[in-house]
Amino acid sequence: MTAAIATAAPCAAAMPTSTRRDHVVDIPGGGTTIGTDAPVFRDDGEGPARRVTLRAFRLDACAVTNARFAAFVAATDYRTEAERFGWSFVFRDFLLPGQVAESPEATPWWCKVEGAFWHAPEGPGSSTLDRPDHPVVHVSWTDAMAFAGWAGGRLPSEAEWEHAARGGATAARFPWGDEEPTDEAGHLCNIWQGDFPLRNTLADGFAGTASVGRYPPNGYGLFDMAGNVWEWTSDPFRVRSLGMAAKARNRAATAARERVMKGGSYLCHRSHCYRYRIAARVGHSPDTSAGHTGFRLAYDA
Fold it and tell me: Which H helix or E strand runs over 189?
């Protein structure tokens, strides 16, 4: 597959301000393999590979955009959890001049910014008006579920998401196949290039989100199933293992009501967060929001 960056953004053109399903892809059902027998992060429950049978369904070709989410907010007056909490996490390189924010000790590259939410993704003084075709961010699982109810869709299951991301391939590592993205060339998705979190070379042209549909689609015609933004699924987070560590992780995930997220984001790099692989997964509580969390909708066939 070519490494050239697509110049068109078909999803943005198809759904600029509404819930039209002009660019929804039919995904065939049947038997499929989920997970991997060669996990990178075993504690995340990436393996073992397992066979499941899925019904046919439909999936948004692209993640939900700022414009599409704005239509939802305009129609419903919905306030996201980040708005109700009064803050959300912003990557430290995106802090505006004069901003001061606390950072978690374990992840000092994240900053707790007062007033950051989907329409002001870097906090007060920022706006999504100049990026209507970028994926909406600072969206929690709860927010995504609210949007899905309004739009007549649902969040995909983890199995549906993986099946769709493989684009018809049996065991592809990435949505485009097994070719590994590099820092220098072959920009197949929007991820970090350089030394995370100290230096981003911006070799792919993006420090943060890219407009949806910027990169070539997979075999099913789906865009950005790796990188750009993390995508919520409907499934609770569980690790499939009988080990004591897995049991402890599952107890914590159940207590926090964690949900599975897939796909990685623009902050992923092989040396840091090698989770733009199809089998990769993380779990977060349903009220989690940050500058790299988004979603796309599924629909029953």
Answer: none
Residue ranges of the chain with per-residue pLDDT less than 50: 1-9, 13-21
Give the CATH number for residue 54: 3.90.1580.10
Let me know the angle formed at the C-alpha of 113 by 79 and 198, rounded to the nearest 5 degrees: 130
Residue 121 belongs to some domain of the structure: no
Q: Is residue 11 part of a domain?
A: no
Amino acid at 21: R
User: What's the domain range around 203?
Assistant: 23-64+140-300
Q: In the chain, how many domains are there?
A: 1
Rounded Cα distance, 124 and 109, in Å = 19
Task: Report pLDDT for 98.
Answer: 86
Q: Using alpha carbons, select from 233, 244, 290 the residue that is nearest to residue 265.
A: 290
Distance of alpha carbon 223 from its chain centroid, rounded? 11
Tokens, residue 161: 């998401």
Phi/psi at 89 (5° precision): -85, 130
Query: Is residue 128 assigned to a domain?
Result: no
